[in-house]
Design brief:
Elements lengths: L1 H5 L8 E4 L10 E5 L12 E5 L8 H13 L4 E4 L10 H10 L3 E3 L6 H35 L4 H12 L3 E5 L4 E4 L3 H12 L8 E8 L2 E9 L7 H40 L6 H10 L8 E10 L7 H20 L6 E5 L2 E7 H5 L6 H19 L3 E7 L9 H17 L6 E3 L14 H21 L3 H10 L4 H8 L3 H15 L6 H19 L1
Parallel strand pairs: 2-3, 3-4, 4-5, 13-14
Antiparallel strand pairs: 1-5, 6-7, 6-9, 8-9, 10-12, 10-13, 11-12
C-alpha cells in the first residue's frame, strides 16, 4: 500500500498535501511523467513521479491531470516543485481531496532514482512475501486434499490461514463446521445487539457444483480485513468443500439406491424368510421386526408445471427429502423408497400411535393428511394422493400391505372426492373393483360409449362435463365455474348427455349406473 511505502526511511521528506484518505491504494509500479499525453502511457496501480515540466505553463492541463490519473486507478502522484512549478495550485489540491487521490511533494534535492529504488525494492519484497504466502496456503490446502481431510479440518485450516473465524454452512443453513469460540460468539452477539456499534464485516463465498449452490463459507473479519491472498485461499477452500459435499452426495445416492432395491424386493413379495429379512434390515439400520403398514405418496404434476424431466426429478427428490424429514420426527431411521413419482413408506404403527391416535387406521390417516398438508404448503405445483395398506406384524406380509396401498391409490384416482388420503379398509364397496372381469369393461362401454364416440368425432367435452357434474353433486353453477364455461353452456351439454345416454338423471338406478361407469372408467385408466 502507498502508506507503507511512505513509511520508509528513504521517504521521510515526502509530504502528502492532498488525498490522505486514498493512502490505502496499492502500488504496483513506478512511472515518470515528462510528456503531456501521459494518459496513453500509464497503467493501473502506478505511482507517478513528475517535475511538471510537460504542463508547467498550462493550468488547464494541470487541473485535468488529477481526474485523468484517478480514472486510470493510479496509486498517486508525487510532484517535485520549485524547478518548473513553484507552488501547486490550490484548485489541484482541492480536486485531489475531493477524489481522495493521493497528491505528494518530494523535495528538490531528491532525484527520481532516490525514490524509485526503495519503492521498487518494497514492491518486489512484498510480491515475494505474497508468493510465499500463496505457496504456504497452497501446500496447506493440498495437505487436506491428500489426507482426505473433512469439512471441520478445512474450516480450521482456513482460520489459521486468514487469521479470522470461519463457518461453513450447507444450502439449508445448517452448520457443517464452525471455528468460532465462545468469546467470539459473545462478541458477535453483543455487536448485533448494540446497534450503535459497528458490526463485524462478513465475507460470504458460495460453494458451487454444476451451477448449483450447495452452501457457503462465511469469514468473520473480526481481527483484520481480508487480503487478496486470503480470498484466494477461501476460494480454494470452497472448491475442497465442494468435493467433500459431492462425495457425500454420491455416497447418499448409492445408499439410497441400495435401500430402495431392498425395499422393492421386500414389498414385491420376493423375500419370505423372516429371519433373513430382519437381518438384511438391521444392516440398513431398519427394524423390520414390528407391526408395519405401507403408505404410498403419489405425486401428480399439474398441467401448469413444465414437463421437463430434470425439473420433475428435482421436485420428486425434494418431496422425498421433505417426507424423510417429517417421518424422522417419530422414527429416527425412516424406511423410505421411491418408484417413479411415488414415495414409498413403511410405517412403524406403534410409533405413530404416540403422535396421532391409539387406533392404527386413524393414526395412519392423520399422518397421511399431516404429510400432505406440509408438502402442499411448500409445493403448489403438485397434487398429492396417498394410499395406505393394512397393518401386518410379519415382515413377510408387508407385500400384502403394499398391494393394498396400490389398490387404494388406483381407486382413489377413480373417485370424485376431496379426500386425497385413503386407507384400504375404508374403501368399502370400491374394493370390489379389483375383482371385476371383462364384464366391468363391457359395462363401462355399454353406458358411456355414446359420449366417448361423440367427443372423439366432434372433439367435444361431454365426458369432462359429465365427470364434473358428479364431482360437484349435480350443481350446474359449480360445473360451469370449474370448466370456465357459461351456465347455459353447461345446461346445454347436460341435455346433450341425457339424449345420448338415453338415461334419466332423476332416476336413482340410472344415476347410480352412470356414476359407477364413470368410476370404473377412471379406475381402469389408473391401473
Amino acid at each position: 500500500m502507498l502508506k507503507d511505502i511512505l513509511s520508509l526511511q528513504e521517504m521521510k521528506d515526502v509530504k502528502v498535501i492532498a488525498g490522505e484518505k486514498g493512502l490505502n491504494r496499492v502500488v504496483k509500479n513506478v512511472n515518470i511523467m515528462e510528456v503531456p499525453d501521459i494518459g496513453d502511457w500509464i497503467k493501473e496501480g502506478e505511482l507517478l513521479l513528475t517535475t511538471g515540466f510537460a504542463i508547467k505553463d498550462d493550468l488547464n492541463a494541470q487541473q485535468k491531470l488529477i481526474p485523468l490519473l484517478n480514472s486510470k486507478n493510479l496509486a498517486g502522484l508525487a510532484i517535485k516543485p520549485k524547478r518548473y512549478i513553484n507552488d501547486i495550485n490550490k484548485t489541484i489540491i482541492d480536486i485531489a481531496n475531493a477524489l481522495d487521490f493521493p497528491l505528494m511533494e518530494f523535495p528538490f534535492y531528491m532525484s527520481y532514482s532516490d525514490l524509485i529504488l526503495p519503492i521498487l525494492n518494497t514492491i518486489i519484497n512484498h510480491q515475494a512475501m505474497v508468493l510465499n504466502k500463496i505457496e504456504y496456503a497452497h501446500n496447506k490446502i493440498m495437505d487436506i486434499l491428500v489426507n482426505n481431510g473433512d469439512i471441520p479440518q478445512i474450516a480450521e485450516t482456513m482460520r489459521k490461514l486468514v487469521g479470522n473465524p470461519v463457518i461453513i454452512k450447507d444450502i439449508c443453513g445448517n452448520i457443517l463446521a464452525s471455528t468460532l469460540n465462545e468469546e467470539e460468539n459473545k462478541e458477535i452477539n453483543r455487536r448485533e445487539t448494540a446497534q450503535e456499534e459497528e458490526s463485524i464485516k462478513i465475507t460470504k463465498l458460495p460453494i458451487i457444483a454444476q451451477n448449483e449452490i450447495l452452501g457457503h463459507i462465511y469469514c468473520y473479519e473480526m481481527y483484520h480485513g481480508l487480503t487478496k491472498v486470503d480470498l484466494m485461499s477461501l476460494h480454494r477452500a470452497a472448491a475442497l468443500v465442494t468435493l467433500e459435499l459431492v462425495n457425500r452426495e454420491k455416497i447418499k445416492v448409492i445408499a439410497k439406491r441400495y435401500k430402495n432395491e431392498f425395499l422393492m424386493e421386500l414389498l414385491n413379495g420376493n423375500m419370505v424368510d423372516e429371519q433373513y429379512i430382519i437381518k438384511r434390515g438391521l444392516q440398513l439400520e431398519w427394524d423390520l421386526n414390528q407391526e408395519m403398514s405401507v403408505m404410498l405418496i403419489d405425486i401428480n404434476f399439474l398441467k401448469k408445471y413444465p414437463n421437463e424431466t430434470s425439473q420433475i426429478e428435482s421436485i420428486i427428490n425434494k418431496v422425498y427429502s421433505m417426507v424423510q424429514t417429517i417421518v424422522e420426527g417419530f422414527n429416527k431411521n425412516p424406511i423410505i423408497g421411491t418408484l417413479g413419482s411415488t414415495i414409498i413408506l413403511l410405517i412403524p404403527v406403534k410409533k405413530v400411535y404416540l403422535f396421532f391416535s391409539d387406533i392404527s387406521s386413524n393414526a395412519l390417516i392423520k399422518l397421511g393428511h399431516y404429510i400432505k398438508k406440509l408438502l402442499l404448503q411448500q409445493l403448489s405445483q403438485i397434487e398429492i394422493n396417498i394410499g395406505i395398506g393394512k397393518t401386518y406384524s410379519s415382515c413377510a406380509d408387508f407385500s400384502k400391505s403394499y398391494e393394498e396401498a396400490k389398490k387404494s391409490l388406483q381407486i382413489l384416482k377413480a373417485m370424485y372426492c376431496d379426500n386425497k388420503v385413503i386407507y384400504y379398509e375404508n374403501l368399502g364397496m370400491y374394493k370390489l373393483f379389483h375383482n371385476l372381469s371383462h364384464e366391468g369393461i363391457n359395462f363401462v362401454k355399454e353406458i358411456l360409449f355414446p359420449i366417448m364416440e361423440y367427443d372423439e368425432k366432434r372433439e367435444g367435452n361431454l365426458m369432462e362435463t359429465l365427470e364434473a357434474y358428479f364431482k360437484y353433486n349435480g350443481n350446474i353453477k359449480l360445473v360451469a365455474q370449474q370448466l370456465y364455461i357459461h351456465y347455459n353452456t353447461a345446461i346445454y351439454r347436460m341435455e346433450q348427455i341425457q339424449k345420448l345416454l338415453k338415461l334419466d338423471f332423476n332416476n336413482p338406478d340410472d344415476r347410480l349406473n352412470i356414476e359407477m361407469a364413470l368410476k370404473l372408467k377412471n379406475f381402469i385408466s389408473a391401473k
